Structure formats: C-alpha cells, structure tokens
Amino acid sequence: MGKRRLIIAAGLCILFFSAHAGAAETENSCVSCHRDIPRDTFIGSKYTDWEGSIHAGQGIACQRCHGGNPSAVKKEDAHAGIYNSGNPLSRVYYKSVPGTCGACHRRDFNAFRESTHYSILQRTGAGPTCATCHESHTTRIVSPRQIPTICRQCHNERMNISPQVPVRAQALLLLINETGYLVRDVRGRIASDDQEGMQTWKDAYEAMQNARDEWHAFNLERVQMKILQVYDMILRFLEKKK
Ligand code: HEC
Ligand code: HEC
Ligand code: HEC
Ligand code: HEC
Ligand code: HEC
C-alpha cells in the first residue's frame, strides 16, 4: 500500500471511529425508546424538543437531568429513580432544577444561589428556575430581543414585581454582548510582540469573564459597573494605539 493510500485509510478510520463515538454517547435506552413514542403526545414532544438542542449535540441525554438507568432495556428498570417533575423526589422538581443543571454549569449555579430569585424559588416557588428562562429541552441561549417577553412573565405592572427590570436587563445584556464582541475584536489588532498590549487585553478578557459569571446573581447594577470597567479598559487601550 502506498504512503498516500495509508494516510487515506487512517483518515477513514478516524472518521469512522469519531462518528461512532459521537453516536454512542447519546445512544442509550432512554433515547432509543423515547424516540419511538408518538411525537404528537405530551411525552413524545419532549424528545422532539431535546433532539435538536445544544445538549443533544454535546451528547447530554435524558438521564443526565432525570436520573434512571440508561442501560436497562425494560421501561420499569430504566425508570428506577425517575419521578414526575411535580414530585419533590424528582431531580427536575422546580426547587431541584438549579442544582441538577448546576452539576455541570457550576459557575452559573454559584451566582444563581446568591440571587433573590433563588431564595424566593426555594421559599415560595415564585422565583424563576433555570428552565423558566432557558427552557428545559430546547435549551435556548437568551438574546436581548427575548428578554422582555421572558422577564415580563413576572416583572410587569399587574403583578407589580419590579416592572422596570425588563427594559434595564435588555439594555444591559446588549451592552454585555457588544462589549464581548469588542474584546474579541481588539485581540486581532494586537501585534504578537506588543507585551503591554497583550497584558491589557488579558486583563480585559478576565474582567469580562468575571462580569459574565456574575450575571445569574441578578444584581444588574453590579454587572453593569463591571462591564463599564471593561469598556474603559478597551477604550484606554485603543486611545494609546492612536
Ligand atoms: C422501553 C421504553 C422506555 C425506556 C427504556 C425509557 N422510557 Fe421513559 N417513558 C416511556 C414511556 C412509554 C413513558 C410514558 C409514561 C409511562 O408509560 O410510564 C415514559 C415517561 C418518561 C418520563 C415522564 C415521567 C413522568 O412521570 O411524567 C420521563 C422523565 C422519562 N420517561 C425519562 C426516561 C429516562 C431518563 C430514561 C432512561 C434512563 C427512560 N425514560 C427510559 C418509555 C421508556
Ligand atoms: C438539560 C436537562 C434535561 C434533559 C437533558 C432532558 N430533560 Fe426532560 N425535563 C427537564 C426538566 C427541567 C423538566 C421539568 C418540567 C419542565 O420544565 O418542562 C423535564 C420534564 C420532562 C418530561 C415531562 C414530565 C415531567 O416530569 O414534567 C418528560 C416526559 C421529559 N422531561 C422527558 C425527557 C426525555 C425523554 C429526555 C431525553 C430525550 C429528556 N427529558 C431530557 C430537563 C431535562
Ligand atoms: C451533564 C452536564 C449538563 C447538564 C446537567 C446541563 N447542561 Fe447545559 N450544557 C452542557 C454542555 C456541555 C453545554 C455546551 C457547552 C457550553 O456552552 O457550556 C451546555 C450548554 C448549555 C447552554 C448554552 C450555553 C451557551 O452559551 O452555549 C445553556 C443555556 C444551558 N446549557 C443550560 C442548561 C440548563 C438550564 C440545564 C438544566 C435544565 C442544563 N444546562 C443542564 C452541559 C450540561
Ligand atoms: C431569569 C432568567 C434566567 C435564569 C433564572 C437563569 N438564566 Fe442563565 N442566562 C440568562 C440570560 C439572559 C443569559 C445571557 C444570555 C446568554 O448567554 O444566554 C444567561 C446565560 C446562561 C448561560 C450561558 C452563558 C454562561 O454563563 O455560560 C448558561 C450556561 C446558563 N445561563 C445557565 C443557567 C443555569 C444553569 C441556570 C440555573 C442555575 C440559569 N442559567 C438561570 C437568563 C437566566
Ligand atoms: C417566575 C417569575 C420571574 C421571572 C420570569 C423573572 N423574575 Fe426577576 N424576580 C422575581 C421575583 C419574585 C423577584 C423579587 C421581588 C421583587 O424584586 O420585587 C425578582 C427580582 C428581580 C430583581 C431584583 C433583585 C433584587 O435583589 O432586588 C432583578 C434585577 C430581576 N428579578 C431580574 C430579572 C430578569 C433580568 C429576568 C428575565 C431575564 C427576570 N428577573 C425574570 C421573579 C421573576
């Protein structure tokens, strides 16, 4: 076999095995049985919602949130430890959702635990869970455009829960996203031998990360202050370059 053929054969092997590994991650009894439940039923619709999600793409299947035994073939065995979300024993009972998501999203969970949202959720159930904003199966990334609709479920004049929040949060998220783009954009303009420039950029990047990590504490003033600091760092840097 020529050298070139060998390389092609090796390439095909890698392709085959990686494709196979990807499928194996989500291919378990939960997925294979639930896939065949009629999709126009309540239970079946959850599979459809999950199927195209970021989580499905990352190989995160049903048992990672619901528990149960994904190697058991029979329904009763697979469902051991699974309860309806209305049952306090369920891992997706509203009070338990943050901890279940937080097993992987540690930093978001840690910030969320500091929020008024979290304490009210635990006390009366009137605060949002992670799934209120991100949905449980489709897993949306919230865009500034969606903020008013999501927050106004509770923050509205009728319920009189801080009705000014949606407009302020929308503007802040826009500022966070724009500043994030700016930080990324500036990176491309720093010469590799510009040590001072690189250091300023690294500081800005870390400060940005730090501000983002605090988002889920829902202290809008604090996040806004931190983002404006990042913004100032970038502006100072650009002015020096002129
Ligand atoms: C052999 C088929 C089969 C397997 C395997 C299976 N399920 Fe189910 N599941 C069903 C059916 C059918 C229902 C509808 C309710 C019922 O019949 O119990 C259901 C219901 C559910 C519910 C809703 C429970 C409720 O009380 O409302 C969840 C959550 C769930 N399954 C998760 C899982 C997870 C996680 C796994 C893997 C660990 C799994 N299922 C494995 C068939 C299956
Ligand atoms: C990222 C976490 C997560 C994953 C992954 C996930 N679910 Fe869920 N699921 C939830 C949450 C949270 C609820 C609670 C009710 C709600 O918010 O919709 C729920 C509710 C449900 C329900 C409604 C019954 C109930 O207990 O409320 C069914 C059925 C269900 N899930 C099935 C599945 C199946 C089947 C899969 C895999 C194909 C899956 N889920 C994957 C988080 C998840
Ligand atoms: C088993 C680990 C795991 C669990 C449990 C889990 N996630 Fe994820 N989630 C991931 C991974 C991995 C990604 C993709 C990588 C990333 O962006 O962090 C992701 C991505 C996301 C994203 C998109 C982030 C982005 O900017 O791309 C959101 C939002 C999200 N998850 C919310 C949730 C919510 C809400 C729950 C609970 C209902 C949950 N996750 C449960 C592992 C998990
Ligand atoms: C009141 C609404 C709300 C609640 C509750 C909420 N989030 Fe978020 N989350 C957002 C918004 C808005 C963003 C910013 C936009 C984005 O990146 O999706 C975000 C960002 C994220 C991201 C992506 C950016 C990052 O920080 O990595 C993940 C992952 C995430 N949330 C997970 C969670 C988890 C886990 C919980 C529960 C512990 C939770 N969220 C609770 C609204 C919410
Ligand atoms: C399920 C209901 C619910 C949803 C949805 C919700 N909140 Fe809240 N939020 C509350 C409650 C209840 C309080 C506490 C009472 C108050 O502040 O008047 C609160 C308080 C707050 C506070 C003030 C915190 C403090 O310490 O005073 C902020 C900021 C906030 N929410 C932001 C948001 C944002 C941003 C969204 C949308 C991304 C959102 N909330 C969605 C219920 C909700």
Q: Which helices and strands appear, and what pairs or packs with what?
A:
Elements: H1 3-26, H2 29-34, H3 42-51, H4 54-57, H5 63-66, H6 75-78, H7 97-102, H8 106-113, H9 116-123, H10 130-134, H11 147-151, H12 165-187, H13 195-213, H14 220-241
Helix pairs in contact: 12-13, 12-14, 13-14
SSE order:
HHHHHHHHHHHHHH
The oligomeric state is single chain
Low-confidence runs (pLDDT<50, min 5 residues)? Answer: 11-24
Average pLDDT taken over every residue: 90
Tally of helical segments = 14
Give the biggest beta sheet.
Answer: none
Helix content: 55-70%
How many domains? The number is 2
Instruction: Tell me the strand percentage band.
Output: under 5%
Bound molecules: heme C
Gross morphology is globular
- Radius of gyration in whole Å, from Cα? 23 Å
Distance between the termini: 59 Å
Helix/strand class: mainly alpha
Number of strands: 0
